[in-house]
Amino acid sequence: MLNVQPVTKEQFYEFALRPENRDRNFEYIAGEIVEVVSNSKSSTDGLSLTSEVRVYVKRNKLGRCTGADGGYSVSGEDYIPDGAFMSYARQPVQPSVAYNPLAPDLAIEMLSPGNTKDEMTHKIGNYMAADTVVWVGNPETKIIDVYVPGQPVKRLRVGDVLEGGDVLPGFRLAIADIFED
Known about the structure:
- By secondary structure, this protein is α+β, with helices and mostly antiparallel strands.
- The protein is 23% helix and 28% strand.
- The protein has one domain (38-177): Alpha-Beta Complex (tt1808, chain A), CATH 3.90.1570.10.
- The protein has helices spanning 9-16, 40-59, 117-129; strands at 26-29, 32-35, 63-66, 71-74, 77-79, 83-87, 99-100, 106-110, 133-138, 143-147, 154-156, 161-163, 172-174.
- The chain has a 6-stranded mixed β-sheet with strand order 3-6-8-9-10-11, sandwiched between helices.
- The radius of gyration is 16 Å and the shape is globular.
- The two termini are 31 Å apart.
């Protein structure tokens, strides 16, 4: 984390949009500025899953996807998931702002060494409160945890198939096809 004292959302935006921060990504979590830093494995696996979702979404004209630099406001905080899907039904026109004011329909989060359990639990809780489905991948264990508001967490391993459920009807992807060796 980059600050010791809590900051306001306005202070967060002022900091994140400074010219010297142009090539850096930040999240606003519980009043703190958190720099988003991944590693090549998490980035590769996140891109793999997001790419499959994007192809499906585009082919079926369901909405749009963002990658690991697309920000969203979620329950009063600002997150940059590794990938996300927003349906045309919820947002016909994509805004041109740093952080989309609407939470995505689907957020994809790939764990990296910098993520803490408390941080991820907090973020998942906020996604759930915003009615966002979350797929949390762990590149080390090759597991995807599926969080759907109002339902128990579903853990998928190599050999299982990830399904899009209500958010991406008909989407199916083998867990083995997500993770690089």
